[in-house]
Design brief:
Layout lengths: L2 E5 L3 H12 L5 E5 L2 H9 L5 E2 L2 H7 L2 E4 L3 H11 L8 E4 L5 H10 L4 E3 L1 E3 L20 E4 L10 H12 L3 E4 L2 H29 L11 H7 L6 H10 L1 H20 L6 H16 L1
Length: 279
């Protein structure tokens, strides 16, 4: 792999560029992004050149799509007739079903391998890109056929994921979307709903001061941008709806049993899961 092109040189795309350079990549890294982002990425040593999609397609051995979900799909459509046959196209989208289906239909001249790094920050942009962002974090790959992981290009990508400290996990696109609806999308919505509820009920100039670290912990995700989450909600509504229904049912159970000793069992189950998350 001599040339990597990254569409969307923000937090994830920029971190991937920094991570592979830290891990020993000595080829060229090309960026496709807005002029201001390209300037910032060049100044920070994240990429070596800013290029157009057409120029990226002519050179890239690996094309890494790190944009919002619907933008990823537009990029796939734009490069379908331009990308080199020996190029591997991969993405970092937070849902996989729609992206993988669309890429399978459109990218017929090269291999596509869906991906999702389970890493991030509440801040966005190349300014917060971090070479260590993927260290110890799951990196889900979603081939439609596990044999697609055996191609030389796919094996090369997996080896780089391991070099940057990520932990590759293979899931079907549909299984990925059902899983992250519970482990990622539901926590975000729960945090945002909690913060929105308190914003409507608290005097934020006075009552909000009467809080401990628990409130900061549980509302951290509420700082996330809707611009990112809009595409996620639009492309995984069924699984997210099922997750919300289960959570609402559990909240209703808590509401109906505030003075019932049975809640001790629920607290114990919850604490064990929290401990597992932190291990």
């Amino acid at each position: 792999m001599n040339t990597v092109a990254i569409a969307g040189v923000g937090l994830i795309g920029g971190s991937f560029a920094l991570a592979i350079q830290k891990a020993g990549f000595r080829g060229r890294i090309l960026g496709v992004s807005s002029p201001s982002t390209i300037d910032a990425a060049l100044n920070a040593g994240v990429i070596h050149a800013g290029v157009t999609l057409e120029e990226a397609c002519a050179e890239a051995d690996l094309f890494y799509l790190a944009q919002p979900i619907l933008a990823i799909m537009r990029t796939i459509d734009a490069i379908a007739g331009l990308v080199r046959p020996d190029c591997l196209v991969t993405d970092a989208g937070s849902t996989k079903g729609d992206i993988v289906t669309f890429a399978t239909q459109r990218l017929t001249r090269c291999q596509f391998l869906g991906g999702h790094p389970m890493a991030g920050k509440t801040s966005r942009g190349v300014a917060v890109a971090d070479a260590d962002l993927f260290q110890g974090r799951p990196y889900v790959l979603t081939p439609t056929d596990k044999m697609h992981l055996e191609t030389p290009a796919a094996l090369h990508l997996v080896s780089w994921l391991e070099k940057i400290g990520a932990v590759p996990i293979v899931l079907a696109p549909e299984e990925h979307d059902r899983t992250v609806a519970l482990t990622s999308h539901l926590p975000q919505l729960a945090s945002s709903a909690l913060a929105a509820t308190l914003a409507a009920m608290l005097d934020t100039g006075n009552q909000l001061r009467v809080s401990g670290p628990g409130l900061s912990d549980t509302t951290r995700l509420a700082q996330s941008s809707f611009e990112i989450w809009e595409d996620i909600l639009a492309t995984n509504p069924v699984a997210i709806g099922q997750a919300l229904d289960a959570y609402i049912d559990k909240l209703h159970f808590f509401r109906q049993n505030l003075t019932n000793p049975r809640l001790r069992e629920e607290f114990a189950v919850a604490a064990e899961l929290a401990r597992k998350c932190r291990r």
